[in-house]
Amino acid sequence: MQIQVVKSKIHRVKVTGADLNYIGSITIDEALMEASNIIEGEKVSIVNLNNGERLETYAIKGEKNSGEITLNGPAARKVQRDDIIIIISYATLDFEEAKTFKPWIVFPNEKDNSLT
């Protein structure tokens, strides 16, 4: 049997932009992607703590150490600048492997989305 578990989580980051006219996705500071082990093109879930919205999209790499978190395309209608969100990705693992799996979870500074 296989189950889905949390693979990566960027907990409580501030949205820095919303670009309705972009094709789609979420742009994430490369340093945050590296720390959370999220790769470009990976499917992610977004949870908006300000309004309760939940959505799925894919990650694209933003400038390293920029603090950028931008929702693009239709997802831009679900957030506003300065909203606090959680970004989550999942992995499908065998049940026994899932029991010992440790996800990559990062807690950025909410003021500037830095890792310090």
From TrEMBL:
<keyword id="KW-0566">Pantothenate biosynthesis</keyword>
<keyword id="KW-0456">Lyase</keyword>
<keyword id="KW-0210">Decarboxylase</keyword>
<comment type="function">
    <text>Catalyzes the pyruvoyl-dependent decarboxylation of aspartate to produce beta-alanine.</text>
</comment>
<dbReference type="InterPro" id="IPR003190">
    <property type="entry name" value="Asp_decarbox"/>
</dbReference>
<feature type="active site" description="Schiff-base intermediate with substrate; via pyruvic acid">
    <location>
        <position position="25"/>
    </location>
</feature>
<comment type="similarity">
    <text>Belongs to the PanD family.</text>
</comment>
<comment type="pathway">
    <text>Cofactor biosynthesis; (R)-pantothenate biosynthesis; beta-alanine from L-aspartate: step 1/1.</text>
</comment>
<dbReference type="InterPro" id="IPR009010">
    <property type="entry name" value="Asp_de-COase-like_dom_sf"/>
</dbReference>
<dbReference type="GO" id="GO:0004068">
    <property type="term" value="F:aspartate 1-decarboxylase activity"/>
</dbReference>
<feature type="binding site">
    <location>
        <position position="57"/>
    </location>
    <ligand>
        <name>substrate</name>
    </ligand>
</feature>
<keyword id="KW-0704">Schiff base</keyword>
<feature type="active site" description="Proton donor">
    <location>
        <position position="58"/>
    </location>
</feature>
<comment type="subunit">
    <text>Heterooctamer of four alpha and four beta subunits.</text>
</comment>
<keyword id="KW-0963">Cytoplasm</keyword>
<dbReference type="GO" id="GO:0006523">
    <property type="term" value="P:alanine biosynthetic process"/>
</dbReference>
<keyword id="KW-0670">Pyruvate</keyword>
<dbReference type="Pfam" id="PF02261">
    <property type="entry name" value="Asp_decarbox"/>
</dbReference>
<feature type="binding site">
    <location>
        <begin position="73"/>
        <end position="75"/>
    </location>
    <ligand>
        <name>substrate</name>
    </ligand>
</feature>
<keyword id="KW-0865">Zymogen</keyword>
<dbReference type="GO" id="GO:0015940">
    <property type="term" value="P:pantothenate biosynthetic process"/>
</dbReference>
<keyword id="KW-0068">Autocatalytic cleavage</keyword>
<protein>
    <recommendedName>
        <fullName>Aspartate 1-decarboxylase</fullName>
        <ecNumber>4.1.1.11</ecNumber>
    </recommendedName>
</protein>
<feature type="modified residue" description="Pyruvic acid (Ser)">
    <location>
        <position position="25"/>
    </location>
</feature>
<dbReference type="GO" id="GO:0005829">
    <property type="term" value="C:cytosol"/>
</dbReference>
